[in-house]
Here is the input.
Amino acid sequence: MAVAPPVAVPRVEAARAAGSTLARVAKYAVVRLVALLITVVVGVYLTILVANMGGYVDQLRRAQIREGVGLMALADPEWAMLTDQDRRERIERLVALEEERLGLGQPFLVRSFTYLANALTLNLGRAEQIMSDSGSRQVRLILLERLPATLYLFATGQLLLFFASIFVALHLSQRYGSFLDRLMVALAPTSAAPGWFYGIFLILIFAGLLRVLPFGGMVATPPPPDKLGYALSLLKHLILPVTAIVISAIFLQVYYWRTFFLIYSREDYVEMAKAKGLPSTLIERRYILRPTLPAIVTSFALTLIGLWTGAIVLETIFNWPGLGRLLYRAIGAYDTPVIVGSVVIYAYLLALTVFVLDILYAILDPRVRVEGRST
Here is the structure.
């Protein structure tokens, strides 16, 4: 009598568990995407309201249009032969045409939702006051033209700051109470000052007094014709702003990560590894650094997002032609499309980063569960 083969019950249960987990992850991802989308929409709309001052900028635009038409009338000799009535009628007609072209005939509340739809679809439109170096008013081209300068400066400064603070803090966590450890703790309050504050003193010392580094700018004027000379000039102009970025945050960052690593370096499994005589580098990498990966990944991702915006005051102090300085000019000129365009790109990048981080947490840290309960 033949015996029936056993049913692979464990495999079936494992497949069902995997399918259930995949369904919960998909559900969680959809919920997070919807929540982030709502956040982006609200944030962008509030930016539109603030950038337009609730419609006050429209009044400024109307005044500028009327002033421009009036100046054109004074410069045209044909207008001098018109009667006062004809001149006023022609001015009103030209003003009305220009306001219609800019959409100022509609109430601001209606146009604000049009601005919102255009912003969310990345239809950034044309700038009103600012032009690119090539003479274009397309916001997309203006932002892309300034992006490389910001990336050169803040990618160098922020990435140097991030990795230096991580490795110095990891080293100090294994040498608690040493002179260097106490020095870093004592210097942590100096990070309360922003980068531009240190930048002013660096300019005064190294550019004004010692005259060994340039006052500002991205490259020398005129720019070197060869690539090597251009690169060396760029590196020379990077020294002071990058130093200001690093000095303004390095001690606080080291103190933060050092405290974070100290918590994990006192765990029982770390003490057990030390008792077994494992090398300190292996203990730091496997037993201290690995459990803190979720926090490190979060900090690194947000650092990368921060590269897009630059820093308004720092770039202005060093006369650096990046996105921060561009945003400063746009705010001063009430150039709403440029302001909204910068914020929209940043909002999308931030939302995407948060979503990716949520997924990475579940991969890097097994304690994280997508529905807040263990499986």
Summary: DSSP finds 15 helices and no strands in the chain. The radius of gyration is 29 Å. Residues 20-120 form one domain. The chain has two domains: 20-120, 146-364.
